Each structure stands twice: as structure tokens, then as C-alpha cells.
Amino acid sequence: MWAWKTFGNGVTPSQTGKKGDHFVGDFYVKFAQKLKEEINELMSAGYSKEEAENAAKSNQAVQSILEKWESGNKETRDLWKQMNDWVYEGFDQTFRRLEVRFRKFYYESEVFNFIPQRIEDGLKKKVFFEHPDGSVRANLEDAGLGEKIILRSNGTALYITQDIAVAFEKFKDFSYDRSIYVVGNEQDHHFRVLFEILKRLGLPGSDKLYHLSYGMVELPTGRMKSREGTVVDADPLLDEMKQKARQAAETAVKSLNLGADEENQLYEWVGQAALRYHILKVDPRKNMIFNPEESIALHGDTGPFIQYTYARARKIIRDSGMEILETNRFNNLNLLSLERDLIKILLRLDSVIEEAAENYNPSILAHYVYDVASFYSTYYQNVPILKETDSIRKKFRISLTHAVSSCIALCLKLLNIHAPERM
Q: Which residues on neighbouring strands pair with residue 217, listed in sequence order?
């Protein structure tokens, strides 16, 4: 907000042709750049880093805006609402494209109204105490977590304050069996502190909280930093993946004689599969490097390879024109070792899903579906299916192919990846 007022000259996203979230993000970077310049100047003049941060005019201006917002200043609130609306409009476009849906949003402005009650409750229960400098704090030293500021001395809230209020509202709204916070591992300490405070405040669901601590996603060039603008925005990344899908498969796709809309949809699905699978196949707790070139390949451990295997299986079934039978109808058939091994892999599906859920680890499912696709690909290349002359054996192989395609389709659905019938 401060950067837009300082550098924006009243410009709007529509005037620049930018999505609203990117537009506001640019001003976030401008603020960070200005703050860095001021801190460097003050440190050159002999200030410590902490003193320089506190004395920086841009930081002081932002604190002033925050205080005006929390006191309900109309001009500040109006600008805040306008910039929020720009961001939400941009987010909505991206979420629709990613087919991501939310049951409910907890807006900061609404959460702010619940904070006084939580502060009062914490003071009454002696979970919080008033510090001589005027701040409100929680003493967690007995849990090895030190002291945590809950309200600054000027009365403004912090992230932890809002998270405390949201936790109570979420339990009131959903009475959840489990509340999973999917947040990067840089916030591990934050969540240890939060969960300890919520337990002491008596949140009914405090024993049901879990921090799914995600590793950082880095680029081959290094770490991304939003304040410095060295991030990959979802929209251009999705566009790039879609274009890579087009480049990798355009000749083959043209032979399918799809309509223009179907063809465009297929490239979107393949591009998103490459992106989603490349990230989901890594244990969520580990840091990873995202490489667009590796993720789009149609061979190897990639989303498009799994999609392609599914589409190939579906084509075999269509071309056979045969009735699909349960594979247990072929009990007396002398199976090849490849067929027995493939059936064993398929029989692991339920236990794999259960293991992935219990461990909050989608990479377990991602590795499994790749194993299924890879093993079926080997089977397809080494065993005749459509050219099999024995009708019973052919029916079995078509039914087995159907079981494979059903397994792949379910796994991809759980990973939020489309399974195209033709590819």
C-alpha cells in the first residue's frame, strides 16, 4: 500500500494489462528495494541492522499505515480493500485454471475482530502476560520455546496472533477430525509455538493439529525470494509448461484429428501434469529443484509419461472391441510371470493410498502410479495383446489392461492430474 501510494501515481492493473496479484506484487518488491536501500544507508552511518530497520522511513511509514488500518481509518481501509480486490481477482483466475477450490476464506479483516477476545482469554488463563514495554507475550520457556510476543507494544497484531484467532474459528466452523497446515519448513518453529499456545488456551481441537512441513522449491539458478522479485509466478509457469507440451507432442497430437478446443485442452492437461507430478513425486519434507525441461519429457518418471501410458491402454481397449471381464474369471489360465507381477502391483493400490494418507505424503502415491505405468509399458512391449490369437488369453490381457487403466486413472485423480483418453 505504501509503495503504491509512493510510486504508483494512481495506476491500476487494467491500465497496465497485468493480473492484479502480479501488479500488487510488483509494489511489494518496490517497498523491499526501498527499505533495503535505507537500511544500507543507515548501517553505513553506524546503525546496527536492527536499529536501521526500526529507523528506516519506509518501515516507519508502513507501521503507521498498519496502525491506521487497525484503528479503522476509512481512507486506509478503502485502499486496502481496493488492493485486496486486485489480488483476489488475480488469484481467482489462477485457481480456476488449476481447478483448486476452497470451502471458506478467513479474511484478515474478519479475523482481526476475534483477536481481542483471544487476548483477554489468554490473560485470564495466565497463558499471556503484559510485559513492562506494553506488549503482550507468552512465556513458553518451560516447553523450550522461549518467549513469544503476541501483541506489539503499540497494540498491533502479528501473524501468530491471527493464527490463534483463526484456529478457534476453524474449529467452531468445522469441528474437524484433523487440521493440516500445509506451510513451508521455514515456519517449523512458528507452528511449534502456535500449537503449544493453542493447547494452553484450551482449543478443543488442539490435539488434532498437524503441520505438513513442506520443503522449499528452488530453481536450477537458486532460491526464490518474493521480496526480491526472484520468484516464478504460477501463471507464466503454467503457460511455459503448456507451450513445452505443445512443442513435445504437436506432431503426434495432430494425428488424433482433435478439434482446436480439445487440442488446446490436451496441451493444458499435459503441461499441468508435468508440473504437478514433478513436484508431488518428491517427499514433501525435502527441498527440491524444479526443472521444467526434465518434467515435460514423455519418457521416464514424469506426469506426461503416465498420462501417455493411460491413453495407450485406453486405445488398446477401444481397438479390441471386447467385453471387459473381472481378472479373477481367468483363474485356470497359465499366466506369464510378467502378468503375475503386474497383478501383484495392482493389488497394492489400497495399501498405498492408505500409506500416503497416514504419512501425509503424496509422493508415495506418485511413485506407485509411475511403477504401475512403467511395468505396464514393459508388459506392452514384450507381450502381444491385440495380436494374441488365443481368444481367452486375449480377453484376459484386455481385462488386465483395463485394470491397469482404472488404477492409473484413480491415482492421477487423487493427485489432481487429468487422465486423457487420447494422447
A: 288
